[in-house]
Design goal:
Layout lengths: L8 E10 L2 E11 L4 E5 L6 H8 L7 E6 L2 E2 L7 H5 L2 E4 L11 H11 L5 H14 L15 H13 L5 E5 L7 H16 L4 E4 L3 H7 L2 E6 L2 E6 L1 H6 L4 H12 L4
Parallel strand pairs: 3-8, 3-9, 6-7, 7-8
Antiparallel strand pairs: 1-2, 1-4, 4-5, 9-10
Length: 252
Amino acid sequence: MSEARVPVLEVSGVTKAYGDRQVLRGIDLAVAEHEAIALIGASGSGKSTLLRCIDLLEEIDDGDVFLDGEVITDPSVSPPGVRKRLGMVFQAFNLFPHMSVLDNVVLAPTRAHGAAKAEAADRARELLARFGLEGREHDYPDRLSGGQQQRVAIVRALATRPRALLLDEITSALDPELVGEVLSLVSDLKDGGMTMLIATHEMGFAREVADEVCFLHAGEIVERGSADKMFGEPEHPETQRFLRRLLDAGRL
């Protein structure tokens, strides 16, 4: 019998509170190589906080996070070293407005990874062309649409060849007509085998892309399963209520 493969990402018993407000309550989660897992749930359910804890942008109170089987939440572990191995894409793009598209993309490979600038620039141009941004290398972010800015943010995350992508509501700041182009890009990444953990309000997208869907409520994963099961036959009353509200609002 072959030995079970270690997940790329594993979250074990993770808790997080802000004062008296418990945001994460013992989260257990594993993301295998080439797998995409979608986190769904109402605003405030803990999705974004979980991603920020995995990327070590927030300090957890208890539990552990593992990357390729190595614990990364031990106080002795350097957060910048971990972030070199993960790609995080935020809701609000977080591009540097005073830097061109190309400079935004090559910053991390050259500064954090020590790549030669020419090599980093060649990879950046290749990625930008791949995602429909050829010819925009010397534009500044304010010259781009929201969808283009979010594509640059995703390219920036990919430029360091991360082990996994963490995507935090990446369409929430976009006009509705721009959402599709970003979701199409993520679908292409999934088809290419990228390992991803995705917090999203786009249920159709989660249904199409995710290998597993996890529903968070009040800081807990109360139900998980395949997209077909979660959207077709949810079992937990909170999942049923959440999806019914979306259906009534015409968002499912």
